């Protein structure tokens, strides 16, 4: 089907969307409601990153009721549950069928350039021209491994978070997980539950409560307007975009992740990775500081909920006082590991953006797009699906619809102006003939 479409399609399109994830599909649907039929170019296939770049036990950390793609609210039997990987892929594929957009899969964009107010896209399977382009490829493209990773002995397997599937796919022996964001903590737990000896290098990632005062914290924060708050209303928008996600999990019907409890149970916690030599991996003496910092955010979220409940006279169960259940002793605060005692290192240290294929001056000098709610200074070029594009939900199932509708309005307006301008030129030509 895609091959037939590729052979029939004109190289010239009104709007081209690059990426067929939830963001690309959302903007396609919003555009089609305005009478604009875009073409989507997808490097792999719909649902690829969810299916191929998540571990087997992966599930959303936000409840299913927050899955609200444009005109496609979650309608399953478990709105308060958390979709696992398989059902996320199904949800996205069903949405793709609902949208009925023209999608070409297996099309990798190599180069995007603008000439004479037109956009030219070079791909592995031909070239395309468009009046307007929406980049919907997300922001997490290249693993951001620690620069000292090259020093590890070659007999230690090194993989990134997106390559991890399950404990059985790894060599026997102890595993070091570096990074304590959502991926790091969840992968460390997954291995730990499979009786693997796990070492976790804990950084400054914050953590979140799961249930508090009778409701999921996501429910409270949604009611408080946190997820719909524009980034410009935050005290420091730049820092908000760079913050690590709070760690918690949707596993086991949703629960908190308390690394202190895992330590009591036998998980080995270390501070931030400091040095790697031919024989040893050394960690900073900051484990206590990092755990306390995560707890501080945890308590701050609960306090904000308490204040909101009080301010709005809401009846809710009384909140309990949090007390840390474990403290690092002096012998584990600045430990080191011998490399010979490790079989695997899993890097959960985040990802970097790679927009090197975009040959248009819309970046800040560090490779980050400069935009106003997805609208760049290059007329007709847009971004969607970036973290904090406009709100917390911009890169997620819950908030991308608002950005999609907003950009569809902008794109439609520009399309109408272009059509009007073209019609005016044609009229002038006729009058002058």
Automatic annotation (TrEMBL):
Q: Source species, please?
A: Prochlorococcus marinus (strain MIT 9301)
What keywords would UniProt list here? Oxidoreductase
In Swiss-Prot or TrEMBL terms, this protein is called Flavoprotein involved in K+ transport
Q: Which GO terms describe its molecular function?
A: flavin adenine dinucleotide binding; monooxygenase activity
**One of the Pfam families matching this protein, by short name:** Pyr_redox_3
């Amino acid at each position: 089907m895609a091959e037939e479409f590729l052979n029939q399609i004109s190289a010239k399109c009104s709007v081209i969307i690059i990426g067929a994830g939830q963001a690309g599909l959302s903007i396609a649907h919003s555009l089609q409601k305005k009478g604009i039929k875009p073409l989507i170019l997808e490097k792999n296939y719909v649902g690829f990153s969810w299916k191929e770049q998540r571990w087997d036990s992966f599930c959303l950390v936000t409840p299913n009721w927050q899955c609200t793609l444009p005109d496609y609210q979650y309608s399953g039997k478990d709105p308060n549950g958390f979709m696992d990987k398989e059902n996320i892929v199904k949800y996205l594929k069903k949405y793709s069928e609902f949208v009925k957009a023209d999608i070409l899969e297996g099309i990798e964009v190599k180069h995007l350039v603008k000439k004479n107010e037109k956009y030219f896209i070079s791909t592995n399977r031909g070239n395309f021209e468009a009046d307007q382009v929406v980049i919907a490829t997300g922001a997490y493209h290249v693993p951001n491994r620690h620069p000292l990773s090259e020093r590890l002995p070659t007999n230690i397997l090194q993989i990134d978070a997106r390559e991890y599937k399950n404990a059985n796919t790894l060599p026997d022996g102890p595993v070091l997980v570096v990074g304590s964001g959502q991926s790091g903590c969840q992968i460390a737990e997954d291995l730990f539950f499979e009786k693997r000896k796990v070492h976790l290098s804990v950084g400054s990632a914050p953590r979140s409560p799961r249930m508090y005062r009778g409701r999921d914290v996501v429910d409270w924060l949604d009611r408080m307007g946190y997820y719909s708050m524009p980034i410009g209303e935050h005290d420091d928008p730049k820092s908000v975009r760079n913050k690590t996600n709070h760690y918690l999990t949707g596993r086991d019907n949703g629960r908190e992740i308390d690394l202190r409890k895992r330590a009591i149970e036998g998980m080995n916690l270390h501070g931030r990775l400091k040095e790697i030599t031919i024989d040893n991996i050394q960690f900073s003496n900051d484990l206590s500081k990092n755990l306390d910092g995560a707890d501080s955010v945890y308590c701050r979220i609960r306090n904000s909920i308490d204040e909101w409940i009080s301010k709005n006279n809401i009846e809710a169960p009384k909140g309990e006082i949090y007390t840390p259940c474990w403290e690092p002793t002096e012998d584990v605060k600045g430990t080191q590991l011998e490399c010979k005692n490790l079989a695997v290192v899993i890097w959960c240290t985040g990802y970097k953006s790679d927009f090197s294929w975009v040959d248009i001056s819309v970046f800040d000098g560090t490779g980050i797009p400069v935009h106003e709610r997805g609208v760049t200074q290059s007329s007709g070029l847009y971004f969607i699906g970036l973290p904090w594009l406009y709100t917390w939900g911009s890169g997620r199932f819950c908030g991308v619809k608002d950005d999609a509708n907003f950009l569809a309005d902008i794109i439609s307006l520009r399309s109408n102006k272009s059509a009007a301008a073209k019609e005016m030129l044609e009229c002038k030509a006729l009058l002058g003939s």
